Amino acid sequence: MTRIEFQHAVEDILKVPRGSLKETDSRETIESWSSFSDVEIVEFIEAKFGVEPEADLMEADTFGDILKNLESKQVFAP
Description:
Non-ribosomal Peptide Synthetase Peptidyl Carrier Protein, Chain A
């Protein structure tokens, strides 16, 4: 899965238009981003990448934080 495909999946989870999610977006800026959405995102990450939720992923404040965490684990296809 590429980075953009991951972004599209998260946009689908958050029910926002594809291409609209910015790295600075967070629970504060996306009305539909709830704690339930957090669970869905973490479950998606576990299923697609086999990445167990660690503290740094669980404490991510923005979409960019999530991306940086996953990029550090080199999970995205080129």
